[in-house]
Each structure stands twice: as structure tokens, then as C-alpha cells.
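User: Could you go from structure to sequence for me? I need the amino acid at each position, not a summary. C-alpha cells:
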């Protein structure tokens, strides 16, 4: 980035000076652009004595949320005509992917300005956030753009979706890829396996799910669920059995299966594995 500024700034602002020892640009007006980095978590503290009215992050997802929020301390100004601003550019992925997605993108419309009220000394102030998506096609002046796109297309489908199309919900190497969710009024196929999954809660209720897996369609259908507080071995086993029978009775009625009768199906763990006493 410094190399790029050394090409542009002298052309844009005659008299602009790059000061290598200070890693900053000094302009004839007195304005200063400070260049910096935070490779490690604690490196962000190197900026704790500075004051910037405009802070810009390049590749925001390479920063942690803690580093990002720390710079709000430095986002201040002595001039009334210079409002404090923070701007960022980034791609999906890297260590900050989740928090950047949550803060700027998840459940938010692109381009829309979201204003959040903050009370300061009994006054209501507004903090605004906005997500502006962009793609390689938005830069018609980019040389050899088609060749660049062809190179990206050699990557995994998840990375192509992320880096070419700007999809934040798909990344190669992620433990869980997003699921397509749909409601079905009836069973999809006569060939299926019933799975009972149990998560014994310590601080939260114990959850039991019944799922129908259709191997031919590679679809998993959640048929019913059960939540129990403070379950014991006996109560858990009894409740699970009757809830299973009740689930299939409900399934038959709600999904037009006629007089389907509950029959024992597969449980992929013995009771000793999926049910235990709550620790004292």
C-alpha cells in the first residue's frame, strides 16, 4: 500500500512528502496520513497516544474485533469541521471474518445506512454503519481483468463464491457450510433412516431431536424436538420413548401419512453414551 501511495500522492497533491522514518505522509496544508500495522494482538497498543479523525483499515478481516474497537479511542479530532470517521475495506475470510460479518453484513441490506442510538450524558447520539459491496466488475479500468477472473476461477467453489461474488456465507475450510432450509408437507421418500440425537445440557436444557435422513436425496428432515430440564436417567429414557411415539403420531397427522404407527428405528449410540446424570 505504501508503494501505491508513493505513486499517487505526489501527482494528486504537489508538495506531498513521504517521511520514511515516521512512516507518514506530510502535506503542504499540514494534513498528515500515518501508515501503520498491527500484526499481533498487542501491536494495536502502539497507537494509544495518537489522535486521528479518519481511520482506515485495509483488509479488516485480518484484524480482531478487539483491535478494531480499540481504535475508537483514537478516533477523535480538535477541529469541528473534521468529524471522526472510520472506514474499512476487506474480503471475506481470515481471523476477523465472523465479527465483520456480524457487525456489518448479517441481517443488513447493502447500501442502507443503519443508525444506532447511543446515550452520552443524557443526550441521544447516533452511530451509523453501512455496508457497500463491490466486485471486480465494478472496476472497468482494471487491466487484464478477464485474465484475473480466470485465475480466481481455478480456486475452490467456496473461494470463488467468496472472492469473486462476495458471498460471506461460504468459505473453503469452514467446519460447517451453510445449509439450505426448506419445509416439506410430507415425507420425501419411503427410504429413510430415523436418527435420534441428544445433547445433554449442563446450563441449558437437554435437547432431543428426531431426524429423517433420505440417502437418495441427501436431505435431513427434522421431524420433532424435545427439551428437558434437570433430566435423570430414568426420566430421560421414558420421556424420550414417549416423545418419539408422539412425534410419529404428529408426523402422520400433519404430513398426511395416514395411520402411520411408530416402530423402533436406529439410535446411533447406546443409552450410556447419550444419557447421563447431571454432574453434582
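Assistant: Here is the amino acid at each position, in order:
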Amino acid at each position: 500500500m505504501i508503494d501505491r501511495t508513493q505513486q499517487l500522492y505526489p501527482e494528486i497533491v504537489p508538495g506531498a512528502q513521504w517521511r520514511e522514518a515516521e512512516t507518514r505522509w506530510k502535506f503542504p496544508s499540514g494534513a498528515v496520513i500515518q501508515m501503520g500495522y498491527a500484526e499481533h494482538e498487542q501491536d494495536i497498543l502502539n497507537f494509544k497516544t495518537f489522535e486521528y479523525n479518519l481511520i482506515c483499515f485495509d483488509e479488516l478481516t485480518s484484524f480482531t474485533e478487539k483491535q478494531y474497537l480499540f481504535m475508537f479511542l483514537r478516533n477523535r479530532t480538535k477541529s469541528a469541521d473534521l468529524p471522526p470517521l472510520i472506514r474499512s475495506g476487506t474480503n471475506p475470510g481470515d481471523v476477523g471474518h465472523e465479527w465483520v460479518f456480524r457487525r456489518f453484513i448479517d441481517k443488513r441490506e447493502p447500501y442502507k445506512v443503519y443508525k444506532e442510538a447511543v446515550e452520552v450524558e443524557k443526550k441521544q447520539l447516533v452511530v451509523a454503519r453501512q455496508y457497500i459491496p463491490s466486485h471486480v466488475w465494478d472496476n472497468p479500468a482494471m487491466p487484464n481483468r478477464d485474465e484475473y477472473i480466470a485465475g480466481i476461477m481455478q480456486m475452490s467453489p467456496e473461494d470463488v463464491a467468496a472472492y469473486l461474488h462476495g458471498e460471506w456465507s461460504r468459505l473453503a475450510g469452514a467446519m460447517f457450510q451453510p445449509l439450505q432450509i426448506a419445509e416439506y408437507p410430507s415425507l420425501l421418500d419411503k427410504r429413510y433412516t430415523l436418527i435420534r440425537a441428544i445433547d445433554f445440557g449442563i446450563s441449558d436444557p437437554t435437547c432431543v431431536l428426531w431426524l429423517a435422513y433420505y440417502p437418495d436425496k441427501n436431505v435431513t428432515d427434522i421431524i420433532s424436538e424435545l427439551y428437558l430440564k434437570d433430566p435423570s436417567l430414568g426420566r430421560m429414557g421414558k420421556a424420550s420413548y414417549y416423545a418419539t411415539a408422539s412425534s410419529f403420531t404428529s408426523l402422520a397427522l400433519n404430513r398426511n401419512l395416514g395411520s402411520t404407527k411408530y416402530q423402533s428405528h436406529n439410535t446411533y449410540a447406546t443409552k450410556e453414551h447419550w444419557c447421563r446424570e447431571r454432574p453434582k
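One structural detail worth keeping in mind: The first strand starts at residue 17 and ends at 19.
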